[in-house]
Give the backbone structure.
Amino acid sequence: MIGTSFIGLSHITGRQCRSITLYGRQTMGARAAEARSRSSRRDRPWIPVTTAHFTLLGSSSAATLIVALSCSACYDRAMPSEKQSILEQLVSESEPSDAVAAYYALWHAGTVIHTERRGGEAGLALEAISPFGPLAILRSTHPALVPALLRTLPEDRLYLMAPRSLSKPIQRAATIEEAAYNAVFHRNTQPSPVPTVKDAEILDRIDDVAALVDEAVVARCWTLWSSPRFAEVAVETQLDFRGRGLGRAVVWAMVSRLLAGGITPLYIVAIDNPPSLRLAESLGMTRSREDEFAGYVDLRRKNH
C-alpha cells in the first residue's frame, strides 16, 4: 500500500500565489485496514509532511486550485526497497502513457501494489478503486509474468488496463470482456484562444467547463483525476447538440486551464471512436507511442 491522507492549513487571499502546509498520516489498503480497529486508525497522528505551493486560476467566481506536491508526500515511506525499485523501473512519472499508472501508484490513497521478480524480469500489478469501480493496472518486462500478476489480484470483476504489448498474454491467461484499445493523447503547449461557438455560452466553472444554450448545460468537460503532472479530461455532449463544436470548445477551455496551472492534459479515447480521435487531433494533441489495452476481467472464474 502507498498513500497518505491529507488535511491542509493555509490562508487564501484572492488569486495570489500562496503556500500550504499539508499534514498527513499513513493510509492503509483495504486488506490491512480490516486488521486494524477503528480506534487505532483514529490514533495515528497527523504530522507535517510537506509544504506545497499553489495558485488560484480563473475568475473569483470560478477558480481552480492547482496543487503541486513532492512525490515524497504520497510515498509509503515503509515501502520495501525491492518493490520501490520495480515501481520505478516500470512506471515513469513523466511519460504520458504511464500517467494513469503513476497516479494510482503514487497519488491515489489506498492503492495496493503487487510485484513479481524472476531473474532479470519484473512485473507490477496495481489494485485500486477508481470512480468507476475496482481497477487493476499491469506492467511487466516479460509476458511470462502475467499469470502470476493476475493471481495477486482479488477474485472479483475488475477493469484491467495494460500496455498493448501485454494484450495477448493477458487474453491467454484470463477471459477479457469488452476488450478495447485506447489511444492516449496529451498536449504540452497552450492552444490558441478558445474557439467561439454560435448560440452558446462557454462557462468556466469550478469543477468543469460547460457549454450553455438557453441557460441549460448541453456539453461539459471535467477531469477524472489529477496528479501534480497530469490530469485526464472527459467530455460529454447531449445528443441533440453534437456536431456544433461544443465538445471541442469545452475541451479546449479545460486544456488551456490545466496547462496554465502547469498540468499536462490527457485525453484517452478508444481507437474505434473516430469522432473522439478527430477531436484530439483538432486540438493538436500528441498520441503516445503505445496504445492502452483495457477491458473487464472476471477473476471469480479464473482460467489461468
